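Bit of a strange request maybe. I'm writing a small parser for structure token strings and I need a real example to test against, not something I typed by hand. Could someone generate the tokens for this chain?
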Amino acid sequence: MRDKLPNRWIIAAAAIAVQMCCGAIYGWSVFVKPLAASEPWTLVQISATFTISLAFIGIGALVGGLWQDRIGPRVVMSVAGVMYGIGFLLSSFAVSHHSLTGLYAGYGLFAGLAIGMAYICPVATVTKWFPDRRGLMIGGTVMGYGAGAVVMGPIAARLIIRSGVPATFQIFGLAYFLTIVASAQLHINPPLGWRPAGWVPRTAVSKLATRVNYTVAQAIRSWQFWLLWLLLVLNTSAGIMIISQASPLAQQQVGMSVIEASALVAVVAIFNGVGRLAWAWISDFIGRAQVYFALFAIQVCVFFALPRLHDPLPFEAAVCTIALCYGGGFSVLPTFAADFFGTRYMGGIYGWICMATWLVAAIPSPMLIAHVRETTGTYESAITAIGFVMLLSLPLPILAGRAASRAASAQSASHQAFESASAPVRK
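Reply from user aminoacidic:
Good idea to test on real output. This should exercise your parser:
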């Protein structure tokens, strides 16, 4: 039976390809200026497309997660690939016919739902195939999501200049459709309880992982679920506030030109991707809760220092550090959830966390800091407030770590009691 199982490294490579397609959504900014120049739409109307897409990514992650728990990842990812392609083709048609509603439906509704559905499946699948390298492999997978815009942005910019926005949407729609649907055929769940040959949990981190598979309902009813959700919400809110305003913040506080600020945005995207791999890998050695404590502690220092940084180099270092922590939070949380609740229903459990996080953190936070800038003329008060929030949040990772330790101890004691009761009685 083991010989018939697929190569898990091929599954991981396919997962990264899908994540890169999904992460390309963050390259939306390359379409903004061309659309503003060619269409009778305001900047707010054009920017709302991206906000709509973010909202539906959360919904898609929930729908896709619950669905793939029931029928497996292959069908869900295939449907997501078809929807992604339709979304971009509809966007092309909408721009050609000057329809803002069509753009909202294509890039916002269809593409957003597809991204959420396609994003959650590789995360859940890779978690099950790599219990021995859970943090590293999840980090590598979601790093693809962070790197998607870095790859897509320059290509899209050149295509727009050469062929226009509608043709660019068509090309990317076809490419995403083919890539995601082809990669989906390689995705299959391992047998329940599968482990790599000869592997047994030996590190302190792997021993904390539960042997019990919670259902989605059981997980949601636990306070640990909401604690993990709060950790991700706080880290996401802090990071995306700065990342979403990196360019205007750099121009105002450091005096960067538009070109220099755009280069900073590209570097920030790279650090976002690197953070997803690095912190998840580190969590395999020091623990998920310890990494989250480090993320919060580092950001406390950086956010308090950031308003006083007026030289380009230290300012860039601070913003890139925030991006590093932002990416790390997204990659460590899936492994943290799997350690707490098991992997069988990982899609639905993490899907709920993703949807709640996008709705509560990823969408309102950029608008909130932009509002503070408009009303006060500066970002300083908002940045300092984030620092205080992160400072007050430092006990939360400690609480999560203790909860994981207590659960592991209770599970170990229960397992030993079961073995003792099952052992033959000597006469």
